[in-house]
Specification:
The complex is a heterodimer. Chain A is α+β, with helices and mostly antiparallel strands. Chain A contains twelve helices and nine strands. In chain A, strand 6 and strand 7 form a beta hairpin. In chain A, helix 1 runs parallel beside helix 4 and helix 2 packs antiparallel against helix 4. The longest helix of chain A has about 35 residues. In chain B, helix 6 runs antiparallel to helix 9 and helix 17 crosses helix 18. In chain B, strands 27, 30, 31, 32, 33, 34, 35 and 36 form an eight-stranded mixed beta sheet that branches. Classes of the chains: A alpha+beta, B alpha+beta.
Chain lengths: ~350, ~775
């Protein structure tokens, strides 16, 4: 009996070892372990054995059942592993990946956000104002003479009610100081409008970044340090800067900041932004409007600046035509999505 | 403005190199836009005389000239100009000469006739812009002399003067500032002989009827002048500065303008009837100006008139009829001060900007009117002869200039952020006179210096900005609502980009005719009073028209799909005039055909999905009345029941018009500013497993899916946590599903928060929901 059992085990293990497929293994499982299988049948036959032999044979049968089960499982793992290996080796890893749509931010948004993040690092908060402004906010409060050419119908867009589309974001300075007491440390990104013909280098609407810092003892040295930091952060440490005296009605002294970088216009000095110390007349106008003396020019000084983003984008990205920035050609936009 | 360095050197011992001068000007706030050195390239260009000329045998437009080049040997040159006479002296470029424009002169045949060199125009030599013909040189120019003797090597600086500095609009003005900047001796004032100091008022000769526009007028009469060509030195100075020589009298007025910055005008005395009246123009009055155009004047325009008619547009341009011509014998020389505002208004209105108006509208030095008048008289007598009347007639007067401004050195140091110990010396160099402690008397030519900050700027300019250190320091700032709004919008942008969309940016001014390209068509947009072009008359009330135009551009350029969004301001005739809006447009391939996925095109549900993912909130959509723009149009409300925008599909014919072969879907949503800081709260994660059960049923074709959701909702089944539609089927043939029905299959998820659901519990809940469906919607369950 024992011999028969051992022989059965050997046969089963041999056959399992030679099985080549899951199907063959399943057949073997049925053949040996199934209800009508060889081992089951032997178990049935146990009743015919003498009582004293039964424990021994039972134990043996159990061992054989376990061994066959283990062999089946092990062989199945092997067959599966071989199958998977085949499937994996059949994969052509050079096939293209699934295509997902990739979008992108507009280059002006990228540039603006980079500038915003830089000033935020310095502790500037954001400020805002309407595109449709009063003449007071856009000109009067900014110390612009009543007969200044910028106020002309030929230069600025007006609404029938006498309000206008702000010709610069400097009106945000006025909005901010009208609403809060000093100290003030804000930047205001936004749109400005000029009544210009649209061509390869002009738009009648453009994006500016306005800045204002009013505190006790703010000086030209602060203006210089802040703007130099900003330019370095934006364009890298190779960039050179210089301040040139200039004229704006709402700052005194006024300057223009020029930059020089090999990557921009071949290293020629390029005007980047206008800036200056807030004109005391602006503070006085704000105080009159506020009805207090929160911005007493004897106590508070400040600097302001305004930068156009389109010109910088054109130089920085090498755009031949400013209109690329408003055409929204997806091939153009995709170039900035990397 | 063009500035000649040679001219400056006549006033100032200027020994610095050109780059040093350019840098000094640049850092003083005087922008140098260009540097020209015309006569550097005059090699082999000499003075020659045309002895005779005859027509070219083979070319009507050419002449063959016999030229004396001073060598004694005759020279033949073919020439295309017509403006010369025999005996004229002209520049001759000899073979081998290189002209400033790069042309190399060679001897050779022109249409078969030998030509040994070239006779040059002023433009070819870059000495002036005028190209009316050959440059006719002064009679006294020595034959054979190098042209550079006549036009000595000069450097011309193209200077941009800021509007606050009219004192720099002359050579003397620039010399005065340079002398201060470079610490040179004071610029030399030209010697002015005060021939007639007898000044009288005579309303019969000069009457000021608009003293606000013209407070001061000087009329000098010079009789017996010989009007003719100007001497070489005068022409050369004008031409260097870019002006054309006309005749000696007019040239003198222009010379003084370039020299001292005071515009002048000369009238032919014979054409003045009665005397001069400075008045406002009469309505409808017309004037033929020197530019040969007729202008219709306005009662806002200041004119110089005689007793019968307007003679000149004051400060802007003289009249054709009263101007100085070769027949003129006696002149009236005008020097005046005009109110800048008046001149600017007229100049803008007429679109007429002249050298005069440019200076008057910025403000000339009131103290220089009389000296300039004398200077011009001297020069007219010098170059035109004649005799000046004994007395000068003036009208009005100039208020005495007496401005004193305080500048505290410590305030200056504080504002500049650097100690400037010699600020007083710097101000003195600029011509300010010390008038007691910290007080400075401002000269009349510096009307821009009105208060302390202006003087501090002067100190900064003189001391040099390079001396100011850089400082980086500041207090912390509280974030503002604008900060939160900015962050929200950037996050929204990033999400949309993550969903595969490109950000577009369009102009806020749009074509009125495009107003129909919106989901809320309106003709009530905010309009400009003074649009520049027909296609930009209104402010956009919606971002959709801009995206439609952008889509059109992309499709016409061959793009197979468009997926763009814009976040920007829109403008409405409403109390809330400006608001921020998000618009999305998708059209065409969502996925292009690929080896592992089929091609799909964008549809309404893609756009719904994009909105939901981008805004991360549940929106309820309801059908609205179709419009001609969007025959499929839905409104959207958010969870709080606020209407937030619309979504729709473009009219097919319109889609076709913009080049789309697939449906064009658009949506626009108003973005409310987020008032508060965004806060997150943790909610316990589900701990017990969920049980899923499907339900399939046949419903009327018209049944909206929202009704199915509502039916589930109305059951108030606490165990139901999710419903997903996974199959929707209609069969137009009616075979599998009757034609008026549709088959809907949903997967329902059940879960309890406090225990593992038993199969029995899940089944019971599922049966309740199924019967709810049947009861409320009358659908037929498919088992």
């Amino acid at each position: 009996m024992d011999n028969d059992l051992y022989k059965l085990q050997r046969t089963a293990l041999d056959e399992i070892q030679q099985a080549e497929s899951k199907m063959a293994l399943e057949n073997l499982r049925v053949k040996f372990l199934g209800k009508a299988g060889a081992i089951s049948r032997l178990s049935e036959n146990m009743r015919k054995l003498p009582k004293e032999d039964r424990p021994h044979t039972g134990k043996l049968l159990n061992e054989i059942r376990n061994a066959v089960t283990a062999a089946l499982e092990s062989r199945l793992d092997t067959i599966e592993a071989e199958g998977t290996a085949q499937i994996l080796s059949d994969i052509d890893e050079t096939l293209p990946g699934t295509r997902f749509r990739v979008g992108g931010l507009h280059p002006l948004t990228l540039l603006q956000d980079q500038a915003v993040r830089t000033f935020r690092r310095l502790g500037f908060a954001l400020a805002d104002g309407p595109d449709i402004e009063t003449e007071w906010h856009c000109f009067d409060a900014l110390n612009t003479p009543a007969n200044h050419p910028a106020r002309n119908d030929s230069d600025t867009f007006y609404l029938p009610d006498g309000r206008l589309l702000r010709s610069h974001t400097s009106s945000v300075q006025i909005r901010t100081m009208g609403a809060q007491k000093p100290p003030v440390r804000v930047i205001g990104p936004g749109a400005a409008y000029r009544r210009d013909e649209i061509d390869a280098t002009h738009l009648n609407q453009f994006n500016q970044l306005e800045g204002l810092y009013v505190d006790r003892d703010v000086s030209v040295a602060d203006l210089k340090g802040t703007l130099e930091y900003f330019v370095r952060e934006l364009l890298g440490h190779e960039v050179q800067t210089r301040l040139r005296p200039h004229f704006f009605p709402f700052t005194e002294p006024s300057f223009e900041l020029d930059i020089r970088l090999q990557a921009i216009q071949g290293g020629k000095w390029m005007e980047l932004l206008g800036c200056g110390m807030v004109h005391p007349a602006v503070f006085e106008e704000i105080n009159a409007k506020r009805g207090d003396s929160a911005y007493d020019p004897e106590d508070w000084t400040g600097f302001a600046f305004g930068m156009g983003l389109e010109r910088l984008a054109m130089s920085l990205f090498g755009l031949p035509d400013i209109r690329l920035l408003i055409e929204n050609d997806q091939r153009f936009l995709a170039q900035f999505a990397r | 403005m063009k500035v000649s360095l040679n001219w400056l050197k006549e006033m100032l011992p200027l020994t610095r190199s050109v780059p040093e001068i350019v840098e000094a000007l640049t850092f003083a706030g005087i922008e140098v836009e260009g540097v020209q050195q015309p006569s550097a390239l005059f090699e082999k260009v000499i003075v020659a005389q045309i002895e005779s000329f005859e027509p070219h045998p083979n070319a009507d437009r050419l002449s063959v000239c016999r030229v004396n080049d001073g060598s004694g040997l005759p020279r033949q040159v073919v020439c295309g100009a017509k403006n010369f006479r025999a005996g004229d002296k002209v520049p001759l470029a000899l073979p081998g000469a290189l002209l400033p424009d790069g042309v190399k002169i060679q001897a050779g045949k022109l249409r078969g006739v030998e030509s040994e060199g070239m006779l040059c125009s002023s433009r070819e030599l870059k000495v002036a812009e005028d190209a009316a013909g050959l440059l006719i040189l002064p009679r006294e120019a020595p034959l054979g002399a190098p042209l550079s003797d006549i036009y000595p090597p000069d450097t011309l600086l193209e200077i941009e003067v800021t509007p606050n500095r009219p004192d720099l609009l002359s050579h003397y003005g620039i010399a005065r500032d340079l002398s201060a900047l470079l610490n040179l001796p004071p610029a030399k004032v030209p010697e002015i002989s005060a021939i007639s100091e007898r000044v009288r008022e005579d309303p019969g000769v000069v009457k000021l009827e608009a003293p606000e526009g013209c407070p001061f007028y000087i009329a000098r009469v010079i009789r017996g002048i010989r009007v003719g060509p100007s001497p070489g030195w005068l022409r050369q100075k004008l031409e260097a500065a870019g002006l054309r020589s006309i005749n000696n009298v007019i040239d003198v007025t222009n010379f003084v303008l370039l020299e001292l910055g005071q515009p002048l005008h000369a009238f032919d005395l014979a054409n003045i009837r009665g005397g001069i009246i400075v008045r406002m123009a009469n309505p409808g009055e017309r004037l033929l100006a020197l530019d040969e155009k007729e202008y219709e004047l306005h009662p806002d325009d200041l004119v110089i008139a005689d007793h019968e008619r307007a003679l000149a547009i004051a400060g802007v341009m003289g009249g054709q009829q009263s101007g100085v011509a070769t027949t003129t014998i006696d002149i009236l020389l005008e020097a005046a001060y005009f109110n800048p505002g008046f001149i600017r208004r007229t100049s803008r209105r007429l679109g007429l900007i002249s050298e005069s108006s440019f200076r008057f509208e910025r403000g000339v030095d009131p103290g220089a009117v009389m000296p300039a008048s004398c200077r011009a008289m001297d020069l007219v007598l010098e170059v035109g002869g004649g005799k000046a009347d004994e007395s000068v007639v003036i009208g009005g007067s100039i208020l005495p200039w007496n401005r004193v401004v305080e500048m505290r050195p410590e305030r200056c140091n504080k504002l500049l952020g650097v100690k400037v110990p010699d600020s007083a010396q710097l101000l003195a160099r600029l011509g300010l006179k010390h008038a007691g402690e910290n007080r400075w008397r401002v000269p009349s030519y510096r009307q821009d210096l009105a208060r302390e900050a202006d003087l501090i700027e002067e100190v900064c300019r003189m001391a040099g900005i390079q001396k100011i250190p850089s400082r980086l320091f500041g207090s912390a700032t509280e974030s503002s609502p604008s900060d939160r709004a900015y962050d929200d919008l950037m996050q929204l942008r990033q999400r949309l980009v993550g969903l595969g969309l490109f950000e577009a940016r369009s102009l806020a001014l749009m074509d009125e005719r495009d107003l129909e390209y919106t989901m809320e068509p309106t003709s009530n947009a905010l309009r400009l009073r003074n649009p520049l072009t027909e296609d930009q008359k209104v402010l956009r009330p919606s971002l959709v028209p801009g995206l439609v135009r952008a889509a059109e551009r992309n499709l016409n350029r061959g793009s197979s799909s468009v997926a763009i969004f814009e976040i920007g301001r829109v403008f409405k005739v409403a109390t809330q005039e400006e608001s921020v809006s998000l618009a999305v447009l998708v059209c065409g391939e969502r996925q292009s055909k690929s080896w592992n996925q089929g091609a799909t095109t964008f549809d309404l549900f893609d756009l719904k999905g994009i909105l939901k993912a981008a805004l991360s909130r549940d929106l309820i959509f309801f059908r609205e009345q179709p419009t001609s723009f969007a025959p499929l149009l839905c409104g959207m409300i958010d969870g709080e029941g606020n209407s937030i925008g619309k979504i729709g599909q473009l009219r097919p014919s319109l889609a076709k018009e913009i080049g789309a072969r697939n449906p064009v879907l658009v949506t626009e949503v108003t973005i409310a500013p987020s008032a508060n800081l965004k806060r997150f709260r943790y909610r316990a994660l589900d701990r017990f497993p969920a049980v899923a059960r499907d339900v399939a049923f046949l419903a009327d074709k018209e049944l909206k899916y929202q009704s199915v959701l509502d039916a589930f909702g109305s059951a108030n089944e606490p165990l139901l946590v999710d419903v997903q539609l996974f199959d929707l089927f209609v069969d137009p043939s009616g075979e599998k599903v009757p034609m008026n029905k549709k088959s809907i299959a949903c997967s329902l998820t059940y879960r309890a928060t406090d225990r593992t659901l038993t199969q029995e519990e899940a089944n019971a809940a599922h049966s309740r929901l199924k019967s709810q469906l049947v009861e409320r919607l009358g659908v037929a369950l498919r088992e």
